[in-house]
Amino acid sequence: MATTLTINGETKSFDAPPEMPLLWVLRDILGMTGTKFGCGIAQCGACTVHVDGKAVRSCVLPISAVANRAITTIEHVGSTPSGAKVQKAWLEAEVIQCGYCQSGQIMSAAALLAATPNPDDADIDAAMAGNICRCGTYVRIREAIKLAASGRQS
Questions:
Q1: How far apart are the first and last CA of the chain?
Q2: Is the pTM of the predicted complex or chain greater than 0.90?
Q3: Using CA atoms in the order 20, 114, 69, 17, what is the torsion angle rounded to 10 degrees?
Q4: Angle of helix 81-92 relative to helix 138-150, nearest 10 degrees?
Q5: Which residue among 31, 39, 88, 128 is least packed, with the fewest CB closer than 10 Å?
Q6: pLDDT tens digits along 95-123
Q7: Which residues of 46-68 are buried (b: 16+ CB within 10 A; e: fewer)?
């Protein structure tokens, strides 16, 4: 079945069943491998993308639910004000270890800062609670989010 989605500001048309999760379309059909597969049940956050600016788990989101909505992936989040700040802060705070969860972490952090430019610890905890980092870089993730929010980046 022919489907058309708006991904990173571009119209993408492809054949896929309406119940196919967005993650499979991104990775397997469109070749956009920045968004990662983690648990497959929306529990780890590795597959996080933005739909109309909100962080969502693409591994359980059928493409029929995102027609006519703006989808942003890690490949494009750096072109948004909050995404650019988060990516720069991520590098400055040296957050990345294995890197597997980072695209999902950055997407959740960028959505947080877009909605809440000056988050407190409770805001950060709530926004990032669904993103698991097996390397345990939570302290640096929090530091990077605060750095991005402060605008004190070099």
A1: 48
A2: yes
A3: 0
A4: 130
A5: 31
A6: 988 989 999 999 999 999 999 999 999 99
A7: bbbbbbeeebbbbbbbebeebee
